[in-house]
Amino acid sequence: MSLCKTRLQEERKQWRKDHPFGFYAKPAKGQDGSLDLTQWTAGIPGKAGTLWSDAVYPITITFPEEYPSKPPKVKFPANFYHPNVYPSGTICLSILNEEQDWRPAITLKQIVLGIQELLDTPNPDSPAQEPAWKAFMKDKALYEKKVKEQAKRYVNAGSM
Amino acid sequence: MSTEEQLTNDEIALYDRQIRLWGMATQLRLRSAKILIINLGGVGTEVVKNLVLGGINSIEILDDSVVKEEDYATQFFLPDDESVVGQLKLPLVIDRIKELNSLVELTTNTSSLVKIFDDPKYFQTFNLIVATELDKSTIEKLNGITRSFNIPLYVAGVHGMFGYIFTDLIKHVSVSEKDAGNQLKEANTKITRTKTITEVSYDEKTNKEKITVLDEFIPISEIWKSNKLPTLLNKRQMKRLSPAVPLTFALFDIKKPDDVEQDVDKQILAEQGQRVCTELGIPTTVISEDYLEVFSRQAFTEYAPVTAIIGGALAQDIIQFLSKKESPINNVLILDSTKSEMPIYAL
Amino acid sequence: MARNTYLKKVLGEDRLERLANTKVIMIGAGGIGCELLKDLLLSGYGEIHIVDLDTVTLSNLNRQFLFRKKDIDKSKSLTIAKAVQSFNYFNAKLVPHHGNIMDTTQFPLSWWDQFSFIYNALDNLEARRYVNKMALFLKKPLMESGTTGFEGQIQPIYPYYSECFDCQAKVTPKTYPVCTIRSTPSLPVHCITWAKEFLFHQLFDESESDLSNSETIQNETDDAQEIENLAQEANELIELRKSIKTTDASPFIEQLVLKIFKGDIERLLLIDTLWKSRKKPTPLDWSTYKAPVTGMLSDISNQSLLINDTKVWTVLENIYVLYKSGSILQRRIKSGKESFISFDKDDEDTLNFVAAAANLRSSIFNIPIMSKFDIKQIAGNIIPAIATTNAIISGFSSLNGTRYFKYNYDQTGSVDFTPISKESSTVFISIKPNKYITAAALVSPNEKCPSSSLLSRGVFQITEEQRQTLTLGELVEKLVKKYGYEEGDLSVIVGKSRLVYDIDFDDNVEKKLSEIGGIGDGELILVQDENDRLENLELYVKVTDEEREHVLPELKLRPKKSVGDDQSVETEEESGGDVEQVDGVVNENDAIVIIDEEDDGLVELDEPALKKRRIQVQSLA
Fold first, then answer.
1. Is this prediction's ipTM beyond 0.90?
2. Nearest CA to B91 among B112, B106, B74?
3. Which of A39, B11, B221, B315 would bridge A28 by S-S if both were Cys, CB 3.0 to 4.6 A apart?
4. How many interchain CB pairs under 8 A, B with C?
């Protein structure tokens, strides 16, 4: 549907004009030299002053054909350490769930800001993985250690 | 439906798409129905096609007419052959109709209706009668007989862009099952003057309600002079009432011109229309000049899309009636296709 | 006296003569098509083209009255054109085309151009959208129609003057998460989907099932153990598939049953997280069934079960049916005549296999078992269909379409659809105690419609040679000059969503158009103004042999509408598994209209429509 492609180019344009500091987002380049507007990679910087700071966490964003009626799928790398991220990397966030808070008007910028917010304020009520969730609930020291270790791995990941 | 009665595998395969809609029980009811269709004009052709496809047990067509040139406007079972004009119609079309569905028993009768009136027992062999394109006195005579034998009667016809269905199904109870809405239906509620909800049962598990509706009918002879129309319409609706309503009524009292090229006399139509307005208790101003013009020209003509709509709605209602599930048309339907309107009035 | 006396009286002599010289196209020769073609022929159209890609099946015959048993498996379009010759009373020229209307080789844009009116009698969303787009490109009137069960509707479409097919959001098919299907079914439909799309597909069909795609699974599941388990299940199935050709029937089926209904389930039970809030499945106890099944197999009279569609089979009977159908499918593959078998609801062997497998899985997961008849409806996405609804809707379709020819249009210039769109209406069947149909006046295109409001359309004509010499950069230059974009500030998207150029992305400007996939004959290019001054432009690429300069369409792009929150179009999606429809689909979201207060004070037997809109339809045809 052309609504999908029109909207995707609009997102690309809006992102170019105005995107939050420290973030990046770009469509994937295909073998034929074109940009696939339905496949994006993006980077989420951890907020300053949090466990997550000083690193940029990579995500992939996949837009379905029914977008923006249906939300994009957003993933961290597999086994990303966070209570609300599934082992596969899929992010559990209500604005990305069609049956919950997804609205067609939600922009790419709002999505990445939402994910940034989620990093340091996990939702204990929707556990998506065992290790991070358990640690977050019962062993804050372990949790912090793991998060910081992970942050180190992504220090340079966000180079644009 | 008796338990030992079952559809064969062949029937289930053939009727698959409709059984999925109305269920095996309805299909069995259709399979046991015997229907008489009086006159095979444009509407008759469409109705017979739809009922044969639907899988009625047996259908007899009664028609003593001969093929006329103008029949080619709508009657698609006719052979495309000039030389048959003037020949008896039924023998020329029956084989083609049979081809539609070998499971339906089709018979023809080329006696004149007037003759059969002398021996009305004939009608008793049918569960339901459909009469098309009859004049007022014939309808009344037939309706008298169907009433006396307790046989449901449908009457229908077309005038160019316009069409009608009248029903006298005497008394009918139907039980439908629907997803319950926010507000449950209540027993002893009148849907219209002649349609009453008599029983409602609600199934909490499935959130469905079973609604029993009683339909009561009046003889067609009482419909002509019904004074109920004004009570069914508010001021605005009265203002927008299609002139097709009184003009359709008026044409029952006007003879079809012998020469098909000829129009119905506009003056006569206007007079009859005014009489009908008075009888129905509606203002004579309902009838506009342009409708008079159109009706005088299109009276008794057949136009395929319109015969398809009327024939479709008619066959549909017959199937619903036989299924005992949905409440049928009660008691006058008028199609004004120029305005895309198809109101039903309980007169 | 003549055959057309009535037509003259009803339509008038002028219109009748126009119709006799009119060429129209009817797309779809199914339920609506049969009825519609009859009406069009009897209305006096001079030339009617018929397009359909389908063949006749038995279940068509309850309503598609132009087909007979002897026509089964024959082309619908060719058969229908022959069938109506028996009542081609006004000597119309009938031109059937067996093919897919979306095939741009068989039906290029130039082919479409010959018709004055398009009648749709289609059964699927994709083709409807495509034809709608063609109508918009060529500014041709289109009559849309659809039915399901007792419901039906028509929508006349006068491009850019009234709403197009895409102006109202359509219901999209319900999909289920892979994990529900593969690990935790709770409804019959989950087990049927599993049996058809996963089990059957993996065992017998050509390519790998989407349901075993690890990418898809990883996108959806929340459990590493589950992912691993699902991968193992799928791999074992691949092994089993390999054994189809090498094993005998008995061991093959036994292995299958043991793996699918016992081993896989036992393994699934080991994943505790799945069963915290769900009832545990019970693996099939093969030992208690083995002997009775063998007994059943030795009695030939049991074969009648295979054609008993309405009986709800017991577990034992399901195993029997699985055994029988599985071994027949195995034999078909082994015989070498078929290298793979796709599920087809009308192929009894495939249906039996899927029904039995679905039921066995259901019984394991404490889900009700269904009859084959009911499973067929879900597995085959069957929409109920009847003759009467099709007859009524076709009547309204032809009647309202023929109304268009009241006017004498100058076929050379662009047509002003104002008068006809003012007097036309959409019609819905909505049977109530006080009326049979509901009509609504046509309204202007939805300002947020991606197809008709937010863009202009035109044909970009080019020769093959030019396609191989012109660069993308040169094309962008030409677009700028022709339509007045600011230098380079536009974007070019081809295909579904492939960006080939914008101000930030000039990697491809040196490439020839032929080197950029997506700029071939019949393909679409979307051009957007990055400054938001001009509306979007969609170009249809037409590669011609005509030796002349490539031509960009003569269009004046309108200022872009400020669409504001145009993206927040709410599509009220409902469940409903109608992927393949029979005679079309009535879109509930379209049901936005109720005529007037005739309904007031009446108890209605069904629910009131969502919104109300007043209308006035006036006109004598």
1. yes
2. B106
3. A39
4. 243
Tokens of A72: 């994009």
pLDDT number for residue C82: 97
Q: What is the pLDDT of residue C70?
A: 96
Q: Would an 8 Å CB–CB cutoff place C336 in contact with chain B?
A: no
C394 touches chain B (CB under 8 A): yes
CATH classification of A2-153, choosing from 3.10.110.10, 3.40.50.300, 3.40.50.720, 3.10.28.10?
Answer: 3.10.110.10
* C498 in contact with A, Cβ within 8 Å: yes
Q: Which two tokens stand for residue C617?
A: 């339809």
Task: Encode pLDDT of C326-358 as tens digits.
Answer: 999 999 998 888 889 999 998 999 999 999 999
Q: Output the pLDDT for position C188.
A: 95
Domain extents in chain C: 5-169+384-441, 186-366, 455-560
Which residues of chain C fall below pLDDT 70? 1, 172-173, 207-224, 410-414, 547-550, 561-621
- pLDDT attached to residue C607: 34
Residue position matching structure tokens 């109508």: C135
**pLDDT, tens digit, 9 for 90 and up, residues B27-52:** 999 999 999 999 999 999 999 999 99
| CATH of the domain spanning C5-169+384-441 | 3.40.50.720
CB–CB contact B160 C433 (8 Å): no
The CB density around residue A101, as the number of other CB atoms within 10 Å, is 13
Gap between the Cα atoms of B4 and C552, Å rounded: 72
In chain A, domain spans: 2-153
Handedness of CA B224, B225, B229, B235 (dihedral sign): positive
From residue B285, alpha-carbon distances to A76, B34, B297, B314, C437 in Å are 75, 44, 20, 31, 26
Q: Residue C581's pLDDT is what?
A: 36
Residue with tokens 């031109």: C95
C455-560: CATH topology is 3.10.290
Homologous superfamily in CATH for domain C186-366: Ubiquitin activating enzymes (Uba3). Chain: B, domain 2 (1.10.10.520)
pTM: 0.83
